Amino acid sequence: MALSQTQLExxxxxxxxxxxxxxxxxxxxxxxxxxxxxxxPYLYRALGIQKxxxxxxxxxxxxxxxxDETIFGNVFFEPIAKLAAGGHVAPxxxxxxxxxxxxxxxxxxxxxxxxxxxxxxxxxxxxNFDALRKRLxxxxxxxxxxxxxxxxxxSSEPTDNSRFRRRSGQAFWQEITxxxxxxxxxxxxxxxxxxxxxxxxxxxxxxxxNRFTRDFMxxxxxxxxxxxxxxxxxxxxxxxxxxxxxx
Length: 247
What we know:
This protein has 247 residues and is an alpha/beta fold. The chain is 57% helix and 10% strand. It folds into 2 domains: 1-86 and 192-237, type ii restriction endonuclease, domain 1, CATH 1.10.3250.10; 88-180, type ii restriction endonuclease, domain 2, CATH 3.40.1560.
């Protein structure tokens, strides 16, 4: 049975609240030194950055943007797709839900957008679908593996390397819900929830910037306040003895 607009609006708000809680937790648990080890200090030097607060904000923004995309896919797109489609959990790794008719088994893996993986990850997705196909062989149904990309316009049929269909944006949401406007409803029914939640995140963000700027200046700035780039590069890239695995 299709979701009513009220049910969909409630689910959207619930998923958004989970998203905000998750991204706040990421920000609160963020470690300056951990993200400094993952970023390119040469790039920031080449950009001519002179202020500690500027480099801190840039590395935080890069980290949080990447984290947000993953979190949003997991707590917003995936549960809404499953609920709106009326699907059940598929008994296989890498497949989020399935839709069955008398003669067809649609196995769906939900991805946030079109840039979700490299060739190896596409191959792994094909392997996951193939494993499910073998398990369901005795059902004598058409097995239809689908990677649904929640936004974008990419569409493709199975190939030797990617043994699944891909549908994106409107085409994906319409296929699993039957509603050509569903992709627009997702944005429309957010209403004022984002605006109501933004101030809390902004306050946490500003505190984190201040805290990390203080720590950065203590560890990587000279007494005159200038950035000690060589010290930063050494922290990021100086050789360490290899770790030995236990036998």
